[in-house]
Amino acid sequence: MKLKVDYFSKWLLLVLAITFCNFAIAQRTITGTVTDAETGEPLIGANILVAGTSSGTITDFDGTYNLSVPDGATTLDVSYTGYSSQTIEIGSQSTIDIALSAGELLDEVVVTGYGTSKSREVTGSIVSVKEEDFNKGNVNDPTQLLQGKVAGLAIARPGANPNGGFNIRLRGLSTVGASQQPLVVIDGVLGGDLNSVDPNDIASIDVLKDGSAAAIYGTRGASGVILITTKRGEAGSSKVNYSGQLSLESADRLPDVYQGQEYIDAGGTDLGGNVNWFDELLQTGTTQTHNLSLSGGTPTTSYRVSANYRDVEGVAVNTGFNRINVRGNLTQKALNNRLTISMNLASTSSDQNLGFDEAFRYATIFTPTAPVIRDVNNSSYDQWGGYFQVDAFDYFNPVAIIEQNTREQKVKNISSNIRGDYNITNDLVVGMFYSYQRSNRDFGQYISKYSFWGGGLGSNGNAIRENNENQDQLFRLEARYNKSFANNLDFKMQLGYEFQDFAFQGFRAQGGDFLTDAFTYNNLGASLDFDNGLGNVSSYKNTNRLISYFGRINLNFDDRFFATASLRRDGSSRFGADEKWGLFPAVSLGADLARIGNMSSFDQLKLRAGYGVTGQNVDESLLSLQRFGPGSKFYFNGSYVPSYGPVSNANPNLKWETKTDVNVGLDFAFGDYKWTGSLEYYRTNTSDGIFLFPVPVPPNLFPETKLNVGEIENSGLELTLAYNGSLGAGKSYNITLTGSRWFTPTLVTLSDPETGVGIGGFRTGANLGSPGQNNTPLVRLEEGGPLGQFWGLVVDPNNPVKENGEWNFVDVDGDGTQDDIADRAVIGNGFPKYQLGLNTSFNLNNWDFNIFFRGVFGHDLLNTFRAFYEAPGAISGYNVLRSSADIPTLTDQPQFSSRHVEKADFLRLDNMTIGYTLGALPDGFSQIRIYANAQNLFTLTGYQGVNPEPRFVDDSAFGPLAPGIDRRNTYFSSRTFSFGVNLNF
Amino acid sequence: MKRFNFYTKSLAFAFAMIVFAPACSDLEEELFDAVTEDNFFRTEEELISALGAAYTSLYGIMSNGGFVCIQEVASDEMVVPTRGPDWGDGGVWTQLHEHTWDPENDKVIGSWNFVFNGVNTCNRLIFQFTELGNPLTDPFIGELQGLRALYYLWGLDTFGNIPIATDFTATEPPAPSSRAEVYAFVEQELLEAIPLVTKDVGGAAYGRVNEMTLRTALAKLYLNAEVYSGSPQWAKAAEQCDIIINSGNFSLEPDYFTNFAADNEGSQENIFAIPYDEVFATGFNLAMQTNHIVSGQATYQLTAQPWNGWCAVEEFVNSYDADDLRKGQPGTEDGPSRVRGNFLWGAQWDASGTVRQMDDNTALSGIDPDGPPITLRTEINELKPNAWREAGARVAKYEFPLGTRPDMNNDFPVFRYADVLLMKAEAQWRQDNGSAEALALVNQVRDRAGIDPFNELTAENLLAERGREMFFELHRRTDQIRFGVWGDAWWAKEAKDECYELFPIPAVQIQSNPRLVQNDCY
Q: Which ranges carry the TonB-dependent receptor plug domain (chain A) (predicted)?
């Protein structure tokens, strides 16, 4: 820790030194007026910037400006919201008047998948987020850039685990049992690995939200598509950019348990120590990131290369990673600019210290009067490697867990692709694309011989080595034809063929019984378990293949009427023999009423509607085949021999989940583009949902089959509203509101009427777990009812405990008993109903501010800490939550009930940035900006647990159908302060 | 116009590229780490491995989630009390003890699955072997028929009105049969299979269904015929027992505990055993289920921390005479118990017998009446919610050698010769309650236990003797029902209606097969 701060101080000094070195620079002054090209009216608050620098100004009330320009400056960049930007040669003039044409916003390029489109022409639901709108601060995962920025898109991570991924849910639940994560496309690579791209290298992210936009991705589009476009070099002078950032991170909320004397006063036992286990487990996490990029180009060649380094230490001791990423792209034009060839190469290597999330649970309940280390004279000192332990079930010294044991992995990822486009004529382009991705994960874990937790003690040390390799290749051919007819009809057509091949393989070995801890997981041959036949070894390999044909037509009639239609035909090796191919059509229409009706008060009023069919592929290979595999050993003729039995049933009808989707939207802009926004409604139906069912044996060989029987319905509303305002010269502000309304999805059916297979009305699942609460289902799936229902006994909220000390459950069915099956009821819902993002940014000359609030509302969370650790009587054995004092007379054991399902609405000051751009620059620099950022400054919530973020996936078999369970092994959430600098030269 | 032609050609070219591009339209799955019927079930070894699946289904019988739970914990022998934060598990354990289980109790579900996984595997293999027509598998078919009858006997005993499914090609979910019909089916199947299976015992036939296995099953079926079908079959039961006794294959071991040792495969008394193994055939976890969390691990040097759950009901422990060799002796303040018995109780010591075991967290052992020194009491203070950590005598019948792993090596005796002697005795006594032969058979078993002979047999002392001898061998519930005392009250269990003799058909089964009919009472 000390070392880190020292490092930080030096680093900061360097930055300050650069910042305050001032050089005398020769300057001259230019004046002029900025007007609307059509009307000639002056434009107030237009930006004028000396190109490649940060020095600039804003026009005043009369549209005039007055700007000091350094010698050597050659051009001015002039921009105004809602108008096309212009670049003006300065030459020797001292007065420059500029006329701007309206329409910049509507000409903004939107990535639509296999192509781009102008914003005005888009008829599906597509949101484009540019770099300047990304979330700032300690962002190590590309999806975090979008958190709260896109209406309908929920991005959540239950805790601040630096190695934990974000769960992404676009427009709520879109599939029954297949993958819920949207398809990620990075520079045209379908299924791109998010770990292969550093957030600093991303230029824009486009989100395809509705079926009409996503249908061109066929069997992978049902959960939406996220298109990531990385930065590229541009023709012109070469640029060097350095960004550096240091972040300090601390846990923001902790479970509220007793500490020290309070614990004893509340009835706990004094074991002689006084330890706040959270303090032992947690630290100030530090993150440093460095990004260096070089870019540039000529009219025929452009390039960009970048290197990123991230060193992250989480708020829990022994968690973090260290990542190096390099990325390069090169574009070359040839054959009279008819041929364009570009290459991309990215390589990422990450060393991760995964740590042990279980430690959070035990830090909460381990006795605060226990010492960390046992008295060396105690007879149990050696047994547990010196750590204080208590022989109880599911109860471990958290410091021992993280200090005695090791859990690490190295992840390597390479991604390369090459693209060639040839303009046969000015209207017709044919293209070819090839991509190769490969990632390797090397996992190692060692549980010490002295570790009470994890069975290390009993197995005399235990090591795991695991290696997984994923690779995929993609080959694509495309033809694109663009033509304008009669000056007012733009016609675009494209056709494509795509072939993608995936291969997964892995190897795992686990063994115990070591003589020494010295090897950790690096010398499995030293494990006696293998000699004794007790070691475990496994390996796997499987492949799959996807073949697709697709086409799309776009029409734009006079910028008034727009139409898009697409069709994709997908075949997958994973589908059953009778269902190898699927067809995914889409059509969408739009009309700009502002132009059609000549409504002068609106700059845009585009009504659009779309219909699309998308699919979700089966998530495993070989599911459609009857397979056999080894089971337990069988005693035959005096020795044990393998037994082989079925591990699956043949299912020739296995196919994709089909989602049909209707989307209606209204895009609007008025007040000279000061106000912009859109309003959308969508309704989806997912049929052929894939779910694992028990099936009758006979006629099946295996008792479970994945079948296409589920159907869910889902709908929602989305609103985006932005206002761009001016506060006079050099001063502007923007307020953007994004709101989402998710209607709770309905489970139409999860049964097959023909075969009778299914849940037959309802099924409960998602077990609470050990200790003492196995066989405690938490969630109910109910056909015809809403998804996400918590299901359990109801405790009388006014009188939770009976006189005899037992839980006072409500006799729901009125039969005189209080805790039978029929007394269970719906006691909450884990799906959120609303999301709100409110972004306010100010540019005040050299200063910039950004404040971003994010809230999610309407969801319940099951606080499992309370369900387990709120019984006051338990304090004799382990620490309990202070809220146990609310039910002092309870003598019953902890038991899950309505009491533990809490409203988890929250509003969070999610992100705040203040930046300063130097006005006078040292020679050679084109921009210097320093900033400070805070993430998660405060959270307003009534939720008693650590983090009120919605939970979208449970680690039980119900997975995404059991949202809202806040499990005990969740990494705590954090608050982060970052300081950084951007240098351009 | 020339230009336009060029467009057309280019477009045609592009189409051609797309349609005939690398011609990869092959969507067959490639298999690397799995086998299908296309490349398996060819060699003798592969066919034997297929047969194995019918036997490995047996390993679930003693698991913490299945059949042993409904047979033992529901009887008056055993109890799994809720010990503070441990073993509440949504009430499934105390439901079993109090006879308040419901169709969602996962031990009931697990038991159904145990029975029908076995049945279905046998059905599948009979079908597959018949289809393959390989002469190598001919002897397996009768064996599978016999094994299926054994699974059915368990299903008949616990769920009663279950579907009779033998045709693997049937696509309709099967309809249930009445308990009497299932009884008749099991009888017929056993009689059919007996001539088809080997007469050998031990050696290559160990752990496999042989003639004596099926005759013991038949004896058990007949002994309970009145419960199962309404008509007693005492003479038929006695007849089967006689065949087993007169075969000369079995004899009482001089030491009762030889039958339950970790290396009990040589027992002369075990007729059919499931050959558990710590590595190859896992699933017998009694050392984990029953031992105290601290002392159990120290006394037997277990490789994992035991779960401190299952224990015997005090009245049942007390039904043994103090000098009954089967009971065992408690540990004391002077040293550990030197006499192995069905039960483990009293003061607990480490493996060397020199270090008194302490629950050194006074916080957790605080409610135990004896405090930190671990003293397992036969007394259980309450069923729930706060039974002592040290409450209840533990099951020590199956040997725990030092270094026992979570999965034990002891083979589980499904059928044992002493049981056949007691069954014969009962069958005789039922026909003639003054039968001297019956009395002599019971006293043969008592004699080995080192206790005085009975002078006469009564329903009470016969049931009690069966209980003591056959403790934790999954017979107690069946015996209590046959003797008509299942509905009686015992410790922490009220008197209940007779219909609780059968467990409910699991709710998930009725959902997936609407033809099933729920048993009375549920």
A: 119-225
